[in-house]
Each structure stands twice: as structure tokens, then as C-alpha cells.
Amino acid sequence: MSGSPIRFFGAPPCSWKFVAVLSALFNLLLLSMLAISIQRFDSRALLAGVVPSRSGEHSGRPEHILAKAVTDVAPSAHLVSAVPEPVSGAVSAMGPARADAAIVYFGGSSDTEPLQNLLVSLRLLDVMFNDRYRYPVYVFHLDSDPVNKTISLARQVSRSKLTFVALPSAVPEHISPERLASIPLHDKNHRLPYKHMCQFFAGTIFRHPVLLPYRYLWRLDADSSLLQPLPYDVFAYVAERNISFAYVENQLQTATPPEFGLWDAFFEYRRQRNVKLRWTKMDGWEFGAKLRSGRPGMKGLFNTHSVVMDAHWFRTAGHLDWFDHLDLLGGIYYERWADHQILTLSLMMFANASAVHRFRDWSYRHAHIQLYNSFLQLPEAGHTELAAGTRQPVFRLNDGRYTR
Residues 6 or more apart from 146 whose CB is under 8 A from it? Predict the structure, then answer.
């Protein structure tokens, strides 16, 4: 009978209702434990809206590629939950605040690691920013890259309007193939695709016909990702404040000058054009100074793996003349003059210090470096700086809250 008492191994009798309540509580406890386990195991994949392969292996499907990559790059399970309040005047409606702005990547490699990086960056760009603002995204790649797989996967994982644009993989005519072939390949940054990327972001980006309709360009590296939602439109922010160049991170260079010959080219260009520096200090750093070695060089550089730029300023302020001067010297290809060095020197010559801005409120990742603003709890107590050259994450606190 349903109302008859029951006994468990000599225990006092109890009713079926009591057993049912115990059973329900037990099931609830099991479900809670299971949910916690799933959250711990899969929270990073859930951030990107994907579920990892049960086998833990790459199946080639975009959700499995993303799941493994997101697990590698997302440092915390509470990224989305720790969202600050929107700033005053933030755009609340869906869609871009400006029609003259776009987001730009360089990367079409179908190799596993670069492809993973690009897919994660695109997905997190949607989650953290572009689902709200819907700015167009352009992915430039070399015409020699087999990009069909990349295009297919990117369009499956990204909700943004994606356009893939091919760039010539041949070296410019004024570059000697023989001299180029004689340069030892110390690391990937000395290889030809990297140098093509440097040339593109140092100057070609401002002349490319696809990008000429846009005044504001947000350059992102394929291995750069937002780690927290941005509660404001970055393009509207720089436009309202007449900012020419907005960056996330700079670096201190204390041992060697820029790549061989760039500093000399910088002085020669200034002598020929009679150009004086507009500033030498930024963020408390002495950008143009003698280094510890006593040699002339640059102590400070703007890292350009995530920058928002006023392309109109770069097209008209003298930057392209500076870029052409360096391009004809061939140092981008022969000596690996990098775009972040070229842009830093250009800003010192042509931009007012007030037109250069640092985003201190972003939580952001590039390669093994992870920056956090004060809204996110660091993965470890305080912050940890690991030895240079390691592949371990480097955690840094991005100084300050919103600086409006």
C-alpha cells in the first residue's frame, strides 16, 4: 500500500512521502554537483558558445577547433559576468554608430594554430563587442594562402559581416629576391608572410581601395582577443575626442635599438624634411632617448596588435611620405622593420600627444600576454610577470578604471 510505512535495514519505519522527499533532495544534489562539474570543465568553451568534442580530439569541425582554442586562451570562467556598468552616453541601440569604420585582420593561414587563433578572436569579438555594434570585418590574406577552409570555418563561427581580401604574395619590385633569400630565418618574424603583414599595417592599409571609404580602422591581430565586453563603441569614442591613434599596450625596450638601420633612417628622414619631434614622452616613458647600452634608440614603443586609428589622419598628416621613404629603402623586408616601430616614430613626428590615447579599461589577450582591468579578478593573487620568451601566460593589470 502506498501509505504503508517501510523500513531500511532495521531503521525506524518511515512513510513513502518522506522517502520521496529524500529522493528528490538527493537527485537535486546530484544535479547540482553535475552542473558544477560541467561548468568547471566547459566554462571557457561555453564563453564562445561551443561544446568540445567528447573525445577531446580535433574533429575538424569548427566547434571542436574553437573549444580547444578557447580553453587555451580564456583565463577565467567569469568573464561575461564581471561586466561594468555602461559608461555615460554609450550607444544602446543595435548597429554601428558610424558608417565610416571597420575592423581589420591580417591572416588567412589554414595551419592549425593560426586558424584557431583567428576563429577565437572572431568569436570573442562578436561576444564582447560586435554583436551589439555590427561593424564590418575585413580579413586580409596573401593570395598564395589556401583560404577556403579558413573562410568556411570563419563564416560558421562569426556573426559579423566578414569580407576576405587577397593581397599579393610576391615581394615588391624594388626588393631584391637574391638579397632577401640570403637573410637567415631566425624565427617566424623573419619570414616573408610576417614582413608582408608589417608592410600592410605600416602603410598599405591606409591606401587599399577596399578600405578607402573608411575613416576609422580597428586593427586586430589574429592572436588577439577581447576578454571582457566593451560597454561603449570604440569608434565613437575616438571620433568624439579627435584621437588619431588609440592603443592598448606599450612596451619598454631597454637593450637594443629598433631593427638595424631604422634609427638612422629616422634621423635622415627628419634631416631631409626638416621635421622636428612633437613629443618624446608618453605614459611616463621616454620614447626617444639613449638606451642602457649608451646607443641612441627608442625606449618606448606602441604595440599595434590592437589599435584604433584615424585613417584620414594617417593619409594626410605626412605618415605616408614617411612610409614610402622606408619602403623604398627596403628595410621592412631586409631588416624586419616592424609596423609598430614605424607607426611609433611617425606619431612622434606628426601627431600631437593629446591625439594619442591608451585604452586602460580593456581586458585583453595577445599571444601569451593577458591584460586585465580592475573589473576582473586576476587569476592569481596580484599579478605575475613571467620570464621573457616563455610560452606561459603573462598576467598584467591594465592600469586604472575608465578614464573619461
Answer: 110
Return the residue matching grid coordinates 561594468: 84
Q: What are phi and psi of 30, to 5 degrees?
A: -60, -45
C-alpha distance from residue 90 to each of 94, 142, 281 (Å)? 12, 37, 31
> What single letter denotes the amino acid at residue 345?
L
Q: Has residue 217 got a pLDDT over 70?
A: yes
Would you state the cell numbers that stand for residue 27, as one nine-digit string? 537527485
Residue 107: pLDDT over 80 = yes
Residue 156: all three cell numbers together: 560558421
Residue type, 254: T
Torsion of CA 261, 266, 268, 271, to 10 degrees: -170
Query: Bridge partners of 106?
Result: 140
| pLDDT tens-place string over residues 29-53 | 655 554 443 333 333 433 333 333 3
C-alpha cell at 155: 563564416
User: For 349-371, what is the mean pLDDT?
Assistant: 85
Contact predicate 193/333, CB 8 Å = no
Q: Is 237 exposed, middle or buried (0-12, 13-18, 19+ CB in 10 A)?
A: buried
pTM summary value: 0.73
Among 163, 196, 197, 164, CA closest to 180: 196
